[in-house]
């Protein structure tokens, strides 16, 4: 039972796979208050100017700048205070030559005035008069109409993940309801393997282990913005697997089968996928460690992944292929928060022609991030507990030397 | 109306504040499947050994290692195949000297055997015999009982944010229900400012603007693991603010008031907080930009924050104080994903004695992260849209030079 499959570099595998994926997640609308982390379905433009009126950026007096030219501590300008601009209302006062009006930060600059003098640069003189001790230029301390954003300007591009500040930007323009976003991709998860037992369903018999990949992959999906449904454990029989996959395909955006760990079960997964439609299996084997025996397939234009049964391999391979596939289905990239650059804290040997992903702990050394390999057998889940992420040793390198920069995908 | 308050460095301010915070978020239990991102309320220990039985890590033949010593291509060891180990069942076969049994990855190593020869290092000989072409050492390709985790070993410490692999680790041990986690802190958000209007409630009048801080801060809370409730806009009247804060305090873990932008309204916030109890306002002014006029207070042992009304200042200051406070209430640290190290892509001037937070876009240059400042007036929300995070210019520096390393808090 030797393994006969063509092993492809991860990037080549991904391209071969994505070239056949024609399906995309659907669209829906949500409230701006619920839009955090969602992906915009189309570019969003501004319906109006922001600010919509001239606003003061300081507390002080709004004036005609020309009245303050040449003012100084020793030779102040004297202005008549003709009123106060109330917050949240149109300025009722009008400011003419030789006049000033009290204004607060965010207040509407009244007609006639073209600048604001900070209160610190004024002092009271007589009853209704102030001294201005410093000149202001026209427009100084004033936000002009549309200075933040102009009508019809694109405020968020299509395929953009909504961040906290974007929620604020939408609300600032009154865009509260009906924000067009991509639906969360629906991922269907299946585990095969006669040794597997659903966690929490009684005592294990000798030789049995609990299915943990469903939970791990579901968590990775949630973090990537998808909703994963655990379909449970499928017996190691081709027809059983065929049946559940066929039933789930129409209602899923991505199918994931975690294959039992033996070669025969993996081959069964590939065979069943090929029976389900064209093009079927496109990649069977990736030049990466851990996780080499990974299957990438397409059915009905939708991506299908066959993961190795080993929990560490499954997690690494889903990070490498599943998480980007979820972003791809949504028309966006993997979240920026998911990786950092760091320097290898030790020599990490690898083999040229193979991309290694090594569990690491991140350490901050005088403002630089270093990645220290976590030791332990590579296929044990507890090696990953306590690791901060996976350091990539690129395909074309025979390893990283201590001090080399590398890319760490964060857990 | 000059501002009279003592301005403290951010770290000093935070310490003075936290020293008085005695309250913590409560505890609850959740399913391991819902535990992603939650914080453990206490250390979790393993109820059993993992693996619970000796497992093969490869496909091959399980043997007595001593039978293979000296085996080579030219001088193979000959063994009798006495059966196959079925997946998910106790090994029914027994392996004695001169014998082997077919075994799959994850299969239970039967009594008598102490190693597994990879199938690639064997070949069929006659009917029930195989040739072993390479020796194995005792224990080779076998996971021993408890090699991943031992009974009573601490698997997750208290105050740990549950990651995808931790979900897998819990499930692997059958820890499905009743995972002890900290409750999501309940944050109550209030906005004051007579110029503010709830977004989505009709046309703005001149001088009015929409309240966007509630939405932005709510999003930051969600990302930090808290649940924020927007209480809406409070009139600029001390008694109105007193009433809503007093009502919310018992049912909140953190109170946040976004003050109107004028000095008088900020002072009102401080006055009302001080009327509500001891110690009240501990910090009124932080040596940081943007966001200097920030209030940090404690009521009933709970943290209270008064944020500046400007949306950018409010966002930066909540990132600086609110997000760590949420982590503090849960007995943990800010998520690792929230910051990266990067090099300044341009000179960034600052003033010694002030901590600046500059919106930046992150750029990858040959494996190193660089932070390029986003230009624009610092108090406009659309300056932040399109930025990836905030680069910190430390208190004791007069700026960062291009190429200097700095810390970027990600949006």
Topology record:
Two copies of one chain form a homodimer.
Chain A: H1 10-18, E1 27-30, E2 44-45, E3 55-56, E4 60-63, E5 77-84, E6 99-103, E7 115-118, E8 122-124, E9 129-132, E10 142-143, E11 154-156, H2 164-172, E12 179-182, E13 186-192, E14 196-197, E15 209-210, H3 213-224, E16 227-234, H4 238-248, E17 254-258, H5 263-276, E18 279-284, E19 288-289, E20 295-299, E21 302-307, H6 311-329, E22 339-344, E23 348-349, E24 355-365, E25 368-373, H7 381-384, E26 389-393, E27 399-400, E28 405-410
Number of helices of chain A: 7
**Structural class of chain A, please?**
alpha/beta
Tell me the quaternary state. homodimer
Total domain units of chain A: 4
- In the predicted model, the low-confidence regions of chain A spanning at least 5 consecutive residues are none
Tell me the CATH architecture of the largest domain in chain A. 3-Layer(aba) Sandwich
Please report which band the strand proportion of chain A falls in: under 5%, 5-15%, 15-25%, 25-35%, 35-45% or over 45%.
25-35%
Q: Biggest interface and its residues per chain?
A: A-B, 103 and 102 residues
Rg measurement of chain A, Å: 31 Å
CATH class of the largest domain in chain A: Alpha Beta
- CATH superfamily annotation of the largest domain in chain A: MoaB/Mog-like domain
The profile of the biggest β sheet of chain A is: 6 strands, mixed
Q: What is the residue-averaged pLDDT of chain A? A: 93
Distance between the termini of chain A: 35 Å
Helix content of chain A: 10-25%
Count every beta strand of chain A, where a strand is a DSSP E run of 2 or more residues. Answer: 28
What is the general shape of chain A?
A: elongated
CATH topology of the largest domain in chain A: Molybdenum Cofactor Biosythetic Enzyme, Chain A
């Amino acid at each position: 039972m030797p393994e006969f499959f063509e092993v492809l570099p991860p990037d080549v595998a991904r391209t071969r796979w994505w070239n056949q994926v024609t399906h995309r997640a659907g669209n829906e609308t949500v409230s701006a208050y619920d839009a955090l982390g969602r992906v915009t379905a189309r570019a969003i433009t501004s319906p109006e100017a922001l600010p919509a009126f001239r606003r003061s950026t300081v507390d002080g007096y709004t004036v005609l700048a020309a009245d303050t030219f040449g003012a100084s501590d020793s030779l102040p300008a004297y202005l008549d205070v003709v009123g106060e601009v109330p917050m949240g209302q149109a300025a009722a006062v009008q400011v003419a030559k030789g006049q000033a009006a009290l204004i607060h930060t965010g207040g509407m600059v009244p007609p006639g005035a073209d600048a604001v003098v900070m209160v610190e640069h004024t002092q009271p003189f007589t009853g209704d008069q102030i001294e201005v001790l410093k000149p202001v230029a026209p427009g100084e301390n004033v936000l002009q109409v549309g200075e933040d954003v102009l009508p019809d300007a694109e405020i968020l591009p299509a395929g953009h993940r909504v961040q906290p500040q974007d929620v604020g930007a939408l609300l600032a323009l009154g865009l509260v309801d009906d924000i067009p976003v991509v639906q969360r991709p629906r991922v269907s998860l299946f585990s095969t393997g006669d040794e597997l037992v659903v966690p929490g369903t009684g005592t294990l018999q000798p030789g049995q282990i609990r299915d943990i990949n469903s939970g791990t992959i579901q968590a990775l999906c949630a973090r990537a913005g998808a909703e994963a449904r655990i379909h449970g454990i499928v017996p190691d029989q081709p027809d059983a697997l065929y049946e559940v996959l066929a039933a789930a395909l129409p209602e899923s955006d991505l199918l994931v089968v975690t294959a039992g760990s033996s070669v025969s079960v993996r081959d069964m997964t590939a065979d069943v996928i090929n029976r389900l439609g064209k093009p079927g299996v496109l990649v069977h084997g990736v030049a990466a460690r851990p996780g080499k025996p990974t299957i990438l397939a397409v059915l009905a234009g939708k991506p299908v992944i066959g993961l190795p049964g080993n929990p560490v391999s499954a997690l690494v391979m889903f990070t490498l292929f599943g998480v980007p596939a979820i972003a791809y289905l949504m028309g966006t990239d993997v979240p920026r928060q998911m990786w950092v650059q760091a320097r290898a804290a030790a020599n990490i040997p690898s083999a040229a022609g193979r991309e290694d992903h090594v569990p690491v702990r991140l350490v901050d050394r005088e403002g630089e991030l270093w990645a220290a390999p976590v030791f332990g057998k590579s296929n044990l889940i507890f090696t990953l507990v306590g690791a901060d992420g996976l350091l990539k040793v690129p395909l074309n390198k025979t390893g990283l030397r201590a001090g080399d920069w590398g890319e760490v995908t964060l857990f």
